[in-house]
Design the sequence.
């Protein structure tokens, strides 16, 4: 299996006056193509920083990052924009939908920037995939939290990325709705999408293939859940 | 979807604010268009009028020279008189080519169309001298002689309005029984509206023996106007008005009126520009996170700048259209108002709202939007997505 995310020795230092804050310390992070990875850790442990660096929204102070085989350090802003457009879909805790655009238009928005033309059927297909077929003309204000997050996921999918990076996508949702979002993630993953999801909920995190635990900017644990589940099944047998 | 619909939809998000901004821009553009249209029209009319006078210097009774000049040009009663003695003094001054006396007077007569009593203006003139002064005069019929009685000349427009033709005999008024012997060909100035009789006849009819209201002076050398008028000023009782002076003073007054106008325009535009910039910065700051999100989903800095600029230009362009329309509708209203305030106003309408001015206003409103949007656009395009998202974090 090929590695779609290959991060080595990622270090991110923020300076606050004299003080240096190590948001990330020598993080190695490998994700295989088609893998579903979750990240947990206490607040302030660097989860968001890691995700932003992986998504090229932020540059690491040290270390290297290869996405889909492309070395990102030293890329120009223009190329980073292209890289994001072609490879990465982002999902946020606060959804960040544009309130004046309908569900359909919000999903369409990335096409405006990538200059790809999305025909109607493609958008309809996405709407079906995130189960919003009958909500397409609603404004975000007329949607529930779960529905808004599904719109955001649809928006992340429209450019046909390889990887979805989600930062606490269920942080604003109740547990029932959260489960449904994770069901959707698993389904997308079953169709070959690579997922990296930050969450506060260990229960949801365990649905992934691998679960990383971050603390003080370092990866302190990596559990191979698929393997364990496999072992568990073996055990029962 | 495109940038324009995105901009339009976003402007609908804060309807109140958008409306106020529209209004601000519209008012600024209205002021700009109407004042500019007044300004250019005023200068055009004024130049036309002063140039058609053919007189270099006017000697009038002491009083307000501009009022007098305006009266001479438009007709009316000059309330005081000069005498033959003044004329003699003037004629003796060196450098004068011609000094001709005139008696201008008003009288009431019947209008042929409505039958109502209306005021007319008559000039008593010395015909040969006047012909020299106004070399462009041409007559249908003939001129009168200075010592001929009971005959008159009329201006072309007057003749047309009153159905006068050569040989018409006046039926009423102070010139009852006078015969029209000549009609001036169209001059394009005030002369088209006047009656002309010999000076002696005018003095007789109005019982103003030896009195004159104006002495029109032509100098030998146009370059010596200032020197000649200096000599003239030494004569008591008379007030000297040179045409260049009138023109200059009116232009000066118009000029200061214009700089006032331009100041008003500039202030209106600056206020409106700051209003727009402020609104934009507010709207941009509010949406920092949104822009961060847009970058995360594939927008470049240029895209963000484009969004902000599209919004602003959209805003000012619509404002500009509204403002221009208001200016077109309102310019006549404004003309009436401004005419009352100006020291001297030409007779014709001086609102000249040319298509060029309308195009200029619309282009200007786009440029205004572009300039106002530049800083906010630059500011938001420079945000790194990370910063943008964090800065708005709850
Ligand atoms: N732009 C920044 N400037 C300064 N410090 C920062 C910046 N971004 C992150 N940090 C610091 O880096 C550390 C990690 O922050 P991060 O947001 O990744 O935490 P997190 O694990 O996502 O926490 P949470 O679960 O609360 O979202 C924190 O100590 C934070 O204060
Ligand atoms: Mg976080």
Sequence:
């Amino acid at each position: 299996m090929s590695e779609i995310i290959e991060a080595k020795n990622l270090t991110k230092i923020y300076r606050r006056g004299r003080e240096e804050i190590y948001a990330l310390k020598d993080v190695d992070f490998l994700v295989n193509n088609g893998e579903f990875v979750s990240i947990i850790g206490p607040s302030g442990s660097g989860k968001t920083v890691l995700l932003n660096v992986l998504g090229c929204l932020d540059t690491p102070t040290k270390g290297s990052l290869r996405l889909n085989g492309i070395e990102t350090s030293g890329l120009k802003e223009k190329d980073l924009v292209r890289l994001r457009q072609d490879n990465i879909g982002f999902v946020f805790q606060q959804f960040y939908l544009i309130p004046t655009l309908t569900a359909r238009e919000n999903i369409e928005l990335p096409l405006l920037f990538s200059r790809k033309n999305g025909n109607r059927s493609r958008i309809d297909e996405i709407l079906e995939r995130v189960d919003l077929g009958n909500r397409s003309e609603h404004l975000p204000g007329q949607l529930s939290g779960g529905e808004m997050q599904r719109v955001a996921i649809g928006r992340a999918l429209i450019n046909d990325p390889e990887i979805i990076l989600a930062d606490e996508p269920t942080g604003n949702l109740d547990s029932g709705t959260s489960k449904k979002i994770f069901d959707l993630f698993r389904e997308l993953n079953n169709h070959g999408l690579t997922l990296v999801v930050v969450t506060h909920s260990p229960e949801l995190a365990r649905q992934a293939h691998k679960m990383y635990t971050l603390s003080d900017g370092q990866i302190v644990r990596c559990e191979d859940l698929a393997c364990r589940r496999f072992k568990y099944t073996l055990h029962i047998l | 979807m495109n940038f324009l619909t995105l901009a339009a939809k976003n402007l609908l998000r804060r309807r109140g604010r958008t409306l106020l901004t529209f209004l601000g821009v519209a008012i600024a553009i209205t002021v700009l268009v109407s004042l500019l249209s007044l300004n250019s029209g005023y200068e055009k009319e004024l130049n036309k009028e002063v140039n058609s006078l053919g007189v270099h210097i006017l000697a009038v009774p002491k009083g307000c020279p501009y009022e007098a000049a305006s009266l001479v040009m438009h007709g009316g009663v000059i309330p005081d008189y000069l005498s033959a003695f003044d004329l003699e003094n003037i004629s003796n001054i060196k450098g004068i080519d011609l000094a001709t006396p005139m008696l201008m007077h008003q009288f009431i007569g019947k209008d042929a169309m409505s039958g109502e009593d209306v005021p007319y203006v008559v000039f008593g003139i010395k015909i040969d001298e006047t012909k020299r002064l106004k070399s462009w005069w041409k007559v249908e019929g003939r001129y009168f002689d200075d010592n001929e009685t009971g005959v008159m000349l009329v201006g072309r427009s007057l003749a047309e309005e009153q159905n006068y033709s050569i040989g018409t005999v006046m039926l009423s008024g102070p010139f009852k029984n006078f015969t029209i012997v000549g009609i001036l060909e169209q001059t394009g100035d005030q002369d088209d509206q006047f009656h002309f009789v010999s000076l002696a006849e005018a003095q007789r009819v109005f019982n103003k023996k030896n009195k004159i209201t104006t002495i029109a002076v032509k100098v030998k050398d146009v370059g010596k106007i200032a020197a000649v008028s200096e000599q003239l000023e030494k004569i008591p009782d008379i007030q000297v008005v040179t045409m260049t002076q009138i023109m200059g003073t009116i232009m000066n007054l118009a000029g200061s009126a214009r700089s006032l106008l331009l100041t008003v325009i500039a202030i209106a535009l600056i206020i409106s520009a700051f209003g727009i910039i402020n609104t934009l910065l507010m709207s941009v700051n509010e949406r920092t996170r949104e822009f961060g999100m847009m970058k995360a989903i594939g927008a470049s800095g240029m895209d963000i700048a484009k969004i902000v600029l599209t919004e602003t230009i959209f805003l000012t362009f619509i404002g500009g259209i509204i403002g221009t329309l208001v200016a077109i509708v309102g310019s006549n209203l404004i003309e009436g108002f401004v005419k009352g305030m100006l020291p001297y106003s030409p007779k014709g309408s001086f609102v000249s709202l040319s298509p060029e001015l309308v195009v200029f206003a619309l282009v200007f409103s786009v440029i205004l939007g572009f300039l106002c949007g530049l800083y906010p656009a630059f500011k938001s395009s420079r945000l790194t997505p990370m910063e943008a998202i964090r800065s708005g974090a709850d």
User: Anything to note?
Assistant: The pocket of adenosine-5'-triphosphate (ligand 1) is lined by residues A 14, 21, 23, 41, 43-49; B 390 (CB under 6 Å). The mean pLDDT of chain B is 82.
